[in-house]
Amino acid sequence: MSRPRIVIVGAGFAGYRTARTLARLTRHKADITLLNPTDYFLYLPLLPQVAAGVLEPRRVSVSLPGTLPHVRLVLGEADDFDLDARTVHYSDPEGSSGTLAYDRLVLAAGSVNKLLPIPGVAEHAHGFRGLPEALYLRDHVTRQVELAASSDDPKSRAARCTFVVVGAGYTGTEVAAHGQLFTDALVRKRPLREGIRPRWLLLDVAPRVLPELDERLSRTADRVLRQRGVDVRTGTSVKEATSTGALLSDGEFIDTRTLVWCVGVRPDPLAASLELPMERGRLLVDPYLQVPGRDDLFACGDAAAVPDLEKPGQYTPMTAQHAWRQGRTAGHNVAASLGIPLSGPAAGIVTRGYHLAAMPGNRVRVAADWLLDAVLPRQAVQLGLVRSWSVPLDTASPELARQPGPPQKRPAPGEPTATTTDGDAAKAGAKGSAASGPERPAGSGPDGLAEPGRNVASRPGETGPARPAAPGPDSSAEGSS
Predict the structure, then answer these.
(1) Nearest Cα residue to 464 out of 448, 442, 449, 446
(2) Which residues of the chain have pLDDT under 50?
(3) CA distance 474 to 247
């Protein structure tokens, strides 16, 4: 029987983690194919530092073949799906085409720059969603500062040293903050004439920067930006863009050669090509990341409208944090839908992860004990705190240890005791006599364990005369404690 085929489209936060999770869970029991235009996973949150010259591009580019050794990488972009035939058609970087067959398909195509119907933006603004855009911006900003330093026109120098960022979300705020530090460092090495200083503007129609965060963090970010010299303008956006500047919504025209577009993202249009129910451009899925009515199709990340279980009726936002968590969930659910049995360390990790998530408390302590057990030898000592007579098999309260009853009544003078014919006190009845030493609970031997031939009371605190044990093949066998 052939192994199940899994195709993952996209290697962003959601797609990469789906592939990594599936590779660990299936353990060579499935053929996993990852379709992506590049051979790396881009750690997008650090991209502004690449544009500012803090990090080299390879530092935020994680090799897919190097970190996913059991996943087949196919370089290309998906351009068509046949859901009935279960195939994905794609084009590779050199223009050739190919087809991938699947038993399970995971759509994790991510998102692209969000465009607004503003004249000139598409022609004169630059986005910030990929490594090429970050590298272009770094070169472009450096070039503008160098051209300004060599220019004899004061107006041209000021325009080239003015940089406008539209959108004060996560990306735009980071670009402006790091961009100001970058240009300040450039002019320290080569000061501009007439005391011109690089100027960064951060615009947003929202009333504050980072509107996704609470007001305290937003105020802190605003203060840091202004201290660095960034001109923060809330309630303001671009009305029109030209090759020489930007007309703002308040009527002011800013002379600039740099307009960075960070107003947000929209789902990759690839999701809409499936012609399935959508929610604002995102493919509708259930809480298990499965497309309703399609047991072979899953979606996660920015391309999927995932129900927010903490906010009924809403969907999770398009952030890297949600995509990362959804990728892991998709990997587990795809493996479960195929019925791939888990064993070995992978199964242990899944089991412990499930129980850790289900526990209502003590999670950190349980996890700590598991960690210690993984690196230290287990202790093997006898504490002797519980005797076998305290935990009888037949009890209505297994959660309670049996407590010893009142001391057994000593035989009256002249009262016969049970002995054997040769005088040896080998039976259980003789072991409860005065000659046996200190009192012990009824039915216990010298070490406190249950003895053959005696029963204890069936309820805690009950006592009574010793009775012969019910006959049976194991009536003389003592259970292990």
Answers:
(1) 442
(2) 418-481
(3) 95
How confident is the model at residue 8, as a pLDDT? Answer: 98
pLDDT in tens, 66-120: 999 999 999 999 999 999 999 999 999 999 999 999 999 999 999 999 889 999 9
Beta carbons of 307 and 315 less than 8 angstroms apart = yes
H or E element at residue 180: helix 170-189
Burial of 416 (0-12, 13-18, 19+ CB in 10 A): exposed
Task: Report d(CA 108, CA 9) in Å as an integer.
Answer: 6
Tokens coding 72 = 């087949």
- CB-count burial class (<10 Å; 0-12, 13-18, 19+) for 304: buried
Count of alpha carbons within 13 angstroms of residue 375, beta-carbon side: 5
Q: Which pLDDT score, from 0 to 100, does residue 17 have? A: 97
- Contact (Cβ atoms closer than 8 angstroms) between residue 481 and residue 384: no
Which residues make beta-bridge pairs with 284?
A: 305
Segment 372-405, tens digit of pLDDT: 888 888 767 666 767 777 777 777 766 677 777 6
b (16+ CB within 10 A) / e for 182-212: bbeebbeeeebeeebebbbbbbbebebbbee
Length of the chain in terms of residues written: 481
Q: What is the largest CA-CA distance in the chain?
A: 129
CA distance 297 to 103: 9
For residues 198 and 158, the answer to whether their CB atoms sit within 8 Å is: no
pLDDT for the residue 419: 45
Residue in 248, 269, 210, 281 with CA at minimum distance from that of residue 121: 248
